[in-house]
Amino acid sequence: MLARTLRAAALGASLGLVPASAGAVIQGEVSRDPNGARAFVVRIESTQGEICSGTLIAPDLVLTAAHCVMHRAGYNVIAVDRAFRQRRVNASAVSMHPDFVPGTTPEEQPGVDLALIKLAQPLGADFVPLDPRGAGSIGTGDAVDIAGFGVVAENRRNTARTLRQAHLVSIGSLQVANRVTVVTDRRRFAETAGAGACLGDSGGPILSGGPGGYRIVGVVSWSSGALQQNTRRRTACGGFTAVTPVAEHTGWIASRAAELSQAGAGGRSEWMARPPRTR
Prior knowledge:
- By secondary structure, this protein is mostly beta strands.
- It folds into 2 domains: 2-30 and 131-247, Thrombin, subunit H; 37-129 and 251-263, Trypsin-like serine proteases (Thrombin, subunit H, Beta Barrel), CATH 2.40.10.10.
- Helices cover 10% and strands 33% of the residues.
- It contains 2 helices and 14 strands.
- The chain has helices at 2-15, 250-263; strands at residues 20-21, 29-30, 41-46, 51-58, 61-64, 75-80, 86-96, 115-119, 143-148, 164-175, 179-185, 205-208, 215-225, 238-245.
- The chain has a 6-stranded antiparallel β-barrel with strand order 9-10-11-14-13-12. Strands 3-4-5-8-7-6 form a 6-stranded antiparallel barrel.
- A hairpin with a 4-residue loop joins strand 3 and strand 4 (51-58).
- The longest helix has 14 residues, at 2-15.
- The chain is globular.
- The relative contact order is 0.25.
- Residues 1-7, 10-24, 265-269 and 271-279 have low confidence and may be disordered.
């Protein structure tokens, strides 16, 4: 079953089953636990109107997808405190993985779809960063969670900006333009529409463990619709979610995080994010 579904994922990508930058967690539950994912999952908004998700890996550092920050724009990071009040912090610098090729779509990306965002100021004690050095590999058949601030359906843009989670399963690695891990609804296996990423979830975490013991094992890159769809209303959500495994890139994350820390003290950064315009 897993092998057949993976072959279908490869076929779907090659035939253009409407893959797209991932958005909201569809068929997910709203996260209301003050000790849960809200402590480390953040929302990223650009001055160009784009929304992504990300993971706090230090009080002033966010891990996300490179395609979320490839434009020279202003970026805000929005976190949710224990009382579920929003806290907005400007990004001061952005660094994409050196193998990432700007201007490509995530599913056509031959490089590594990862980036770091340096915050203008650290978040406080209400937030609990996840250390990517503790990331494990994602094995075929592993149960994982997805969390993000995306929409519940492509035609419901007003549902974004709410943190949701869903349970998924890994069905193995897939080589498209680059190598990704594919996760999907663990009951439907992408045969029909189920839980997964949608618009706004790009850059959000794939998690193992549970509350109090979460580990980030992947970063959402793109999604595609289920294999069985209404041909008149195809969607890029509810089928496969393609993930960049974190464990394979912890060396770059650690070294670049150290460089960005030095940048805050007057060192070099890849490029400085323009402050968002005030309204």
